[in-house]
């Protein structure tokens, strides 16, 4: 039992020795499409030019022979792509114990495609939701979402319409779309943007629901339609039209009476004025006029009759 424990302890010590002998991994970030030079160095000192016969670069256990190695042993990565990301190791010979440096290359790019993008439609609005799977190496500046009516394949598609706000805050994970048509299929697309540009676009579809009011009204209108008698409909239309005709005739009669009423009143006034004119010929000629005020402040109103006789006010 003691022998087994001793052997196990030796294996553990040997494993830890190899782990401690490995150099630390150094992280290097590069933007997509740029060039990158990796140096094979001991304590950050570059190998001297001309002493590169035994230099070999390995990428995650595979020889990177297709990559360009500089005379000083540095590795040149041209027009970096996402496939170039990974851990690169530099050795002086085929002995793995002679590792000089290990570099983790991280390629920064526009944001990757959003994950779990789906649409939760309603009658006249829809809710677009998504999750962020990565930022591409730079913080996300904003999200952008658009929508359009889905058209048949044999027709030209409509232009994409922006969803307000056009710059969705980076902490948002959903956006509402308003003013949609019920029972209609729409296409939605959304993407993220960082300082390197627009990320991959994700497009989904959603179908809005039927209008509840329309369904309820249709259900009531069509209830018993198979047993509907057209004669009932004709009778109902006849009753309505007859009622409208009677109302129209009554309105015309009232307007006629209203127009005749003033003329009858004028005839009655003329008949009443005839006796007054006969009894008092000066009925229309009487008028009053003002005279200057006298010293006793008597009524200065005088009366002029039709025979031009002036009656002065009584003096006190």
Automatic annotation (TrEMBL):
Presence of keyword ATP-binding: no
Keyword annotations from UniProtKB, A to Z: Disulfide bond, Membrane, Repeat, Signal, Transmembrane, Transmembrane helix
GO biological process: cell-cell adhesion
Gene3D superfamilies for this protein: Immunoglobulins
Domain Ig-like intervals: 23-106
Biased composition (Low complexity): 296-316
Keyword Signal tagged: yes
Top-level division of the source organism's lineage: Eukaryota
Signal peptide interval: 1-21
Record Pfam families: fn3
Annotated transmembrane regions: 232-256
Stretches for region Disordered: 289-316
Family annotation (SUPFAM superfamilies): Fibronectin type III, Immunoglobulin
UniProt GO cellular component terms: membrane
Fibronectin type-III domain location: 110-214
InterPro entries: FN3_dom (IPR003961), FN3_sf (IPR036116), Ig-like_dom (IPR007110), Ig-like_dom_sf (IPR036179), Ig-like_fold (IPR013783), Ig_sub (IPR003599)
Name of the featured protein: Contactin-1 isoform X1
Organism: Neodiprion lecontei
Lineage: Eukaryota, Metazoa, Ecdysozoa, Arthropoda, Hexapoda
């Amino acid at each position: 039992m003691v022998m087994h424990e001793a052997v196990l302890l030796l294996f553990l010590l040997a494993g830890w020795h190899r782990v401690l002998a490995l150099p630390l991994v150094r992280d290097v970030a590069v933007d997509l499409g740029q060039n990158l030079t990796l140096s094979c160095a001991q304590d950050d000192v570059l190998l001297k030019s001309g002493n590169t016969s035994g230099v070999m670069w390995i990428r995650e256990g595979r020889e990177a022979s297709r990559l360009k190695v500089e005379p000083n042993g540095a590795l040149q990565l041209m027009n970096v792509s996402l496939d170039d990301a990974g851990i690169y190791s530099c050795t002086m010979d085929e002995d793995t114990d002679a590792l000089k440096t290990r570099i983790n290359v991280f390629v920064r790019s526009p944001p990757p495609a959003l994950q779990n993008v789906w649409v939760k439609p309603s009658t006249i609005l829809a809710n677009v939701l998504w999750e962020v799977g990565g930022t591409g190496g730079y913080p996300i500046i904003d999200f952008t979402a658009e929508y359009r009516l889905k058209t048949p394949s044999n027709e030209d598609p409509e232009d994409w319409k922006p969803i307000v706000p056009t710059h969705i805050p980076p902490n948002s994970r959903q956006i509402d779309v308003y003013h949609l048509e019920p029972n209609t299929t729409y296409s939605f697309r959304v993407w993220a943007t960082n300082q390197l540009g627009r990320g991959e676009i994700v497009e989904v579809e959603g179908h809005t629901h039927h209008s509840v009011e329309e369904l309820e009204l249709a259900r009531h209108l069509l209830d018993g339609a198979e047993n509907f008698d057209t004669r009932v409909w004709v009778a109902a239309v006849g009753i309505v039209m007859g009622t409208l005709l009677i109302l129209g005739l009554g309105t015309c009669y009232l307007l006629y009476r209203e127009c005749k009423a003033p003329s009858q009143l004028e005839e009655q006034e003329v008949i009443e004025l005839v006796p007054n004119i006969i009894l008092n010929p000066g009925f229309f000629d009487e008028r009053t006029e003002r005279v200057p005020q006298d010293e006793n402040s008597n009524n200065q109103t005088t009366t002029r009759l039709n025979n031009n006789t002036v009656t002065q006010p009584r003096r006190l």
